[in-house]
Specification:
- This protein has a domain at 47-121.
- It has helices at residues 16-23, 47-55, 58-69, 82-101, 106-125, 140-146, 159-173, 179-182, 200-209, 217-222, 227-238, 263-273, 301-314, 323-329, 339-351, and strands spanning 7-12, 27-29, 128-134, 153-158, 186-189, 191-193, 239-241, 249-255, 260-261, 281-283, 292-295, 318-322, 333-337.
- It is elongated and about 90 Å long.
- It is an alpha+beta fold and 352 residues long.
- The N and C termini lie far apart (53 Å).
- Strands 1-4-11-12-13 form a 5-stranded mixed sheet. The protein has a 3-stranded antiparallel sheet with strand order 2-10-9, covered by helices on one side.
- α13 (301-314) links the parallel β11 and β12 (318-322).
- α13 (301-314) crosses α15.
C-alpha cells in the first residue's frame, strides 16, 4: 500500500452494540448492500450487450423461451394421455421459439436479463462482509456522519501492527480457500474514481456459471478460478466514487459466511425502529484491540465510564476531542484523559 498512514481509525456510534463490541472484543461487520453508499460494490453492465451474449448460448435461449414465452392451454391433469400432453407441449415450444425469435420480443428478453443481472449483483453484494477503517481520525464530517454527531467514539490502530495481525488472521482463518480466492480477503485501500469499470463480461460469466453452481453466497467465491477474476472482484469491492474520498477508507474484506448476527441486539433494534434491516453482524478477529480510544465532545458519561474501564484494564491511551478549540482556533484540540478521572466523575455523581 502506497503512502501508508501511521494510524487507522474506526468511527463508532453511541449505541449499546458499538460499546459492547469493544468490551467483548468483537468486530462489527456488514455486507456492502447495507452500507450508506447505495452503489457500494455494485456492478455496472450494458443490458443490450449482456442480452446478446446470453442469446448466443443454446441453454440460455431455451431458458428464455420456456420462462418467458412457453404456455400450455391446459393443466397437466387435464390431458387424457401422455402422448396428448407431449404433442401439446411440442406445439407450445414451437410457438414460444417463434416468439423468442421475433424482434418485437427483444424488450421483454432484455428486461428479464436485467432482472437476472440485478438479482446476481444483489447476491454478490451480500457475499462479502466489510470492516471499515479510515486514515483520518479527526474529521468533523466523519464524527458527525459515523459517530452520532460527536456523541460516539473512535478506535485507533497502529497501521503496521493492524496490517500484520489481520493478514495472519486471514491466512489462518481462510486456509480452505485457494490462494487466488484468498487474495480478495484482508485489508485493502479504497480507491476513488470518476466512474466504475463496466462489469458486463463478469456478470455474463456469473450467470452462466450459476446454472452449474448452487446460487449461494459462496458460489461467487467458488467460481473465481483466475487471478484476473479475483482482481476484478477486488476492484468492485474497493472502488468508490470520488465524492467519498474525504473518508480515506481502508477496508477489511472477508466472506459473509464468517459473520454472525447478534439476535438479542437485532430484536432490540427492531423493537425500537420497526425496521428489520437493522441487522447487527459481528466477526471475531483474534487480538484485534485498539491502540487508543477517542471520546467525542458529546459522548455520554455511561459510555465514557465503560470505555475508560476497558482502557484502564488493558493500558490503552484515552483521549477526548474539544469542540471549543475548533470554534476558537479552527483546529480540533485532542487532549489525553486519565481513565481513573472518568471513573471518579461517575462515582462522585452517584454519591451526590
Amino acid at each position: 500500500m502506497d503512502n501508508k498512514p501511521k494510524l487507522l481509525f474506526r468511527y463508532r456510534p453511541s449505541t449499546q452494540y458499538a460499546v459492547e463490541a469493544v468490551l467483548e472484543k468483537k468486530t462489527f461487520a456488514t455486507c456492502p448492500i447495507q452500507l450508506n453508499d447505495a452503489l457500494d460494490s455494485s456492478i455496472v453492465f450494458d443490458s443490450i450487450d449482456l442480452t446478446n451474449k446470453l442469446m448466443k448460448s443454446k441453454k440460455m435461449r431455451v431458458r428464455f423461451r420456456d420462462r418467458l414465452f412457453l404456455t400450455l392451454d391446459r393443466k397437466m391433469e387435464e390431458f387424457s394421455s401422455f402422448e396428448e400432453y407431449a404433442a401439446d407441449l411440442k406445439n407450445a415450444q414451437e410457438s414460444a421459439e417463434r416468439k423468442l425469435a421475433d424482434p418485437k420480443s427483444l424488450p421483454v428478453i432484455q428486461n428479464y436479463v436485467s432482472f437476472l443481472a440485478l438479482d446476481m449483483i444483489k447476491e454478490f453484494r451480500r457475499s462479502f462482509a466489510v470492516v471499515s477503517f479510515c486514515s483520518e481520525g479527526q474529521s468533523q464530517i466523519m464524527w458527525s456522519h459515523y459517530s452520532s454527531d460527536s456523541s460516539g467514539f473512535v478506535l485507533a490502530y497502529i497501521f503496521e501492527n493492524l496490517t500484520c495481525s489481520l493478514q495472519k488472521w486471514v491466512n489462518e482463518r481462510y486456509s480452505r480457500y485457494s490462494d487466488t480466492q484468498r487474495s480478495i480477503f484482508g485489508l485493502h485501500k479504497v480507491t476513488y474514481c470518476e466512474s466504475f469499470v463496466g462489469g458486463t463480461e463478469y456478470i455474463y460469466k456469473c450467470i452462466m456459471k450459476r446454472r452449474e453452481v448452487n446460487s449461494t453466497r459462496e458460489s461467487f467465491l467458488k467460481s473465481i478460478s483466475t487471478q484476473e477474476d479475483a482482481n476484478f472482484v477486488l476492484s468492485l469491492l474497493t472502488e468508490k466514487r470520488k465524492e467519498w474520498s474525504y473518508e480515506g477508507e481502508y477496508r477489511l474484506i472477508i466472506p459473509f459466511d464468517d459473520v454472525y448476527c447478534d439476535e438479542e441486539m437485532f430484536n432490540e433494534l427492531n423493537d425500537c425502529t420497526g425496521n428489520s434491516n437493522h441487522n447487527v453482524y459481528y466477526t471475531n478477529i483474534g487480538n484485534l484491540q485498539p491502540d487508543a480510544i477517542y471520546f467525542g465532545e458529546k459522548t455520554t458519561l455511561v459510555n465514557m465510564v465503560a470505555l475508560a474501564s476497558f482502557c484502564k484494564a488493558y493500558d490503552i491511551p484515552l483521549f477526548r476531542q474539544n469542540l471549543l478549540s475548533l470554534q476558537r482556533t479552527g483546529n480540533m484540540n485532542i487532549s489525553q484523559v486519565d481513565p481513573e478521572d472518568v471513573i471518579r466523575i461517575k462515582i462522585r455523581k452517584d454519591i451526590h
